[in-house]
Structures
1.
Amino acid sequence: MEEFSSLPPQVLTPTAKTFLAMQGAESLLGLSSNCFMVVLNMADWARGRSLTTSDRFIVFLGLSNIVFQCTLAGSNSCDFLWQGTYPVHPLCPTLYMLMMFSALCSFWVTAWLCVFYCTKIANFPHPVFQRLKLRITALVPWLLLSSVLLSLATNLPLAWSERYLVLKNSTTLLEHFGYYSVNRIFLISFGYTCPLALVTVSAAMILTSLCKHYHRVQRHQVSFSKASMEAHQGAGRSVLSLLLLYLCYHVFMTVLLIDFVQYGSVEYWACLSAVSCYPLAHSLVLIRGNAKLRKPLMRILPGAKCQRGVR
């Protein structure tokens, strides 16, 4: 351990310093926005108000994103300070594992949130969908628990291979490097792709249902409350925004995991900076789609006050 702790920090290039400053700003904003979501909901709960199902999802997502943002900032700091020795320094794999676990938790909970929105908005006659539509609220605690268990199960093989990357024996390191690469592929194919598939299917079903409903209203002049229609459209926009955000993260993270770009290049730091934006962008999408969170934020932000005054 002594030889690891004596590793000197590397000299940062101007490009690395720029991206480090950007990630610092992203981390502060991401922590602030996610803490805002959690604190506001927990304050309502402390005052005796019961949390809705979507509020529970948002609180869990906020907590996951806070851990994700903190460990991501720590992992990126290791990446900046010990360039070239990142996999070997004992602190970095620990932060990396916590980062991947919290990220996977956030992805799975996002996927279940989109499924929840889908069951509330979409309307299909299939018996399985109708049964899920009736039971989804009761299943929420189990869905949240499954998010933790699936994230843990996906992360364990990678954590086991990371254990060998901190060994001082170079022969053992090379012997298990292939195993480490296989686990990265497993992480991408199952840990990222399965939640992405759920979000994609949910978004497609919501869009299909909303389009059918819109055409039915236009054709038969069926009355439909404006508030209910706006709520459905808002949830649909949120699901589409989450899908787009998830796709962007999936692309950038996959590029980093498969070493598609050269370590230390401008493209590498740009991908890392884009990944660091995820918790912040995620929280903004959730706040924008939730009136309970959006209205207090509009009262806090001076720019929003001015814009609202002009309107």
2.
Amino acid sequence: MVSSEKKKIRLNLSIEISGLLLLILVSSSVADVVVLNDNNFEKNVGQDRYAFINFYYPGFLTCERLDPQYENLGENIKMANESVLIGKVDCEKNWSICKKYEITVWPTLKWFYKGSLKPKEYEGQWHVQFLSDFANTEAETNLKIETVPSNLVVLTDSNFDETKNVMAVFYASWSVISKALLLASTLYYEIPLSIFKAIKKEIGAELTRLRVKI
């Protein structure tokens, strides 16, 4: 009887410790990217360190596609460089901040320099390697991030095999639309804002980056 009670106590204690460890791990992971809002934005941004901020809107596919890349960036920068803050702003809950910085598409990434609330817009690709390269350039750091190589294969006359089932993208290097389609055809890239703007200008249509289907 006593032995059974001891087993129950040990089991309950083990469950409580496991739950506490899980909570600590989750909290640590979330803290890699600082959640900013109306109350703490200016307390963290424009202070004594650089800030790379993701302005996003919950539920949008493009925002969800960026999340793992951005979390990876936050985790690596937090471990290697405390002079750069990686943060995010939920524009659904904090519209006043997003309105102030003229956020019209989601996600939008902006870089803030030390002691300044006037940002520079990031217009590059959304893969973590490009994000870290940009941060390294702006902060004059040398952060190295190991990434998974892309599965995208460049086909040529010499390696094109008509006997295999292949999903291929045929494109022209001089076409802005072709370039955008090529970037969107892999899991590791998303259409950069600069290319998106060029597409709008080229075809003269009212588009929104939120509706790009991958």
